[in-house]
Amino acid sequence: MVLKERREGILHLTLNRPERLNALTGALLDELHAALKEANGDPEVRALLLTGAGRAFCAGQDLAEFGEQKPDYEAHLRRYNRVVEAMAGLEKPLVVAVNGAAAGAGMSLALWGDYRLAAEEASFATAFTRIGLVPDSGMSFLLPRLVGLAKAQELLLLSPRLSAKEALSLGLVHRVVPGERLLEEALAVARELAQGPTRAYALTRKLLLETYRLSLTEALALEAILQGEAGRTLDHEEGVRAFREKRPPRFQGR
Q1: What average pLDDT score do residues 134-153 get?
Q2: Can you name the residues that pair with 51 across neighbouring β-strands?
């Protein structure tokens, strides 16, 4: 259910349930979590690319998985939460290519990309309140930080369907491209990131996420700690050497 393909230091992951609009099940979440953890521990993987098969990115939870039973959402969300924590804790950059509809938890997963592209025909909807639920998979954490509290309230309470251009104007995605060029453009971004200072990217993500809960003094202290860590990497040495030699750096991700 999760297709994996390696190319040029990039692990390309595809949610592959096109007949169900790539709706999420426990099994699919387990596969995605395993793929993320495997990539994180593989030094040959320098960047990840996540997209969906067919005409949707991900329609959120597949409610048919529960049948007629009343789901234990608190227990079920543990599977979602460990995927989100794996995405947030990646030590490599994550590019997300939204090829179609991204709704509910599918939209949440899309927002965890470090760089997010959308096809012109893509759409976004929070969707949770449409079935009487609250946001999950980290949406309550990320959405207000991306669009502000007032807009997040509107998107979560009214759940409008956003076009790709509307998502771009709100900062939900970084770029909108024609559908036939989506993977090409996403791979170009992933390729550029895969050639960069991988550890510095991971530390930057950590810093940005942490500083939301820190005072200025604490944020300055964390910057110093993480800068010290980045300064001990071989990539930093190479960056300084390349600067002095007036040539492009050749980062190794170490």
Answers
A1: 96
A2: 14
